[in-house]
Amino acid sequence: MSIIEARQLSKSFMQAVKDPGLKGAVKHLFIPKHIEKIAVQPLDLTVEAGETVAYVGPNGAGKSTTLKMLTGILVPSSGTVTVNGISPHKNRMQNAAQIGAVFGQRTQLWWDIPITESFSLLKDIYQIPDSVYKTNLEQFIELLGMNEFIHLSARKLSLGQRMRADLAASLLHNPPILYLDEPTIGLDVSVKQKIREFIKKINLEQQTTVMLTTHDLGDIEDLCKRLIIIDHGSIIYDGSLQEVKSRFATERVIFFQVSSPLPDLFRKLKQSDGMKLDIQSELEFSVSFDRYEYTASEVVSRVMEHGEVVDFRMEDASIEQVIKSVYDGKLNLNSSRNSEGELVSCL
Ligand SMILES: Nc1ncnc2c1ncn2[C@@H]1O[C@H](COP(=O)(O)OP(=O)(O)OP(=O)(O)O)[C@@H](O)[C@H]1O
């Protein structure tokens, strides 16, 4: 059953164009000039109940704008959107009752009152039954490790503490949908891990649909089976993370440790087209290659022809490298590999 349905959903903004300096500002006051910025091109999107979807793209791609339309904060310029059967911007109150939202940079907590009191205000606002509130609160305090700071006001919390409190606040009323905009931005590894584990558990146990934007690809690898990539306001990829990996993460690196220097090998590899040498020291180096061009055993044998290999280990390209290549325009996701492993366009 689909829970989010968008059809030809788009958003444009009018942006002021000013010449620089005071003169420009004064001129703009009398002769205002604007250009239309299309933040989100007409897009279709269907999300099934219980899915975890990563919505990623470079800065300014249109991620937050899409999320704001789905949460009802922004009114679309065209198209339709329904979330759990409701048009979010037309039925804001009803919509608020069925969603949880965390926007990494902002807080929904009251700045000057203890977190516990913010939570009980939310209980009243959302009319959460006592038993649900009590169960959720106890569970969230434990899972997110909030005991040490729950009596402080939001103003006094560190970023990691505030994010945990915000996440708990967004889920107190058991919403079926959770939107997260950069939920782990600026957090240390252990808090990131706590937050990811918590989201995973909520998704698994309550079948909460999770849609998140992130620049941290660890969030995607840890949390999301489905990946949507948006660029210049258009969706350029919608599919599984696994598929992106197997289609495009084709680079492999083998790290070698050898017993004596191998200048001949280094010379030959430097001239080789398909293999890239990276020297760490006389006795330690790595060789990168495309796994569709060479097998790992071919690369290892080539090194062993020149000397004794003490140790080696192999790494595949990370999803991070693949997505970076997409953002940099080096990789076209509308392409596929043929039976020879060559990239061919699908358009
Ligand atoms: N209120 C606004 N008024 C004018 N232009 C806007 C407004 N909000 C967003 N934009 C423009 O729309 C485009 C998309 O912005 P959006 O915030 O959705 O990008 P994003 O993908 O979330 O980027 P980031 O990763 O940097 O947060 C940008 O060019 C931005 O300048």
TrEMBL record:
Q: Which GO terms describe its molecular function?
A: ATP binding; ATP hydrolysis activity
Asked if the keyword Ribonucleoprotein belongs to this entry, the reply reads: no
Q: Where is the ABC transporter domain?
A: 17-257
Per the UniProt record, one Pfam family is: ABC_tran
Q: Which UniProt keywords apply?
A: ATP-binding, Nucleotide-binding, Transport
Annotated protein name in UniProt: Sugar ABC transporter ATP-binding protein
Which species expresses this protein natively? Paenibacillus wynnii
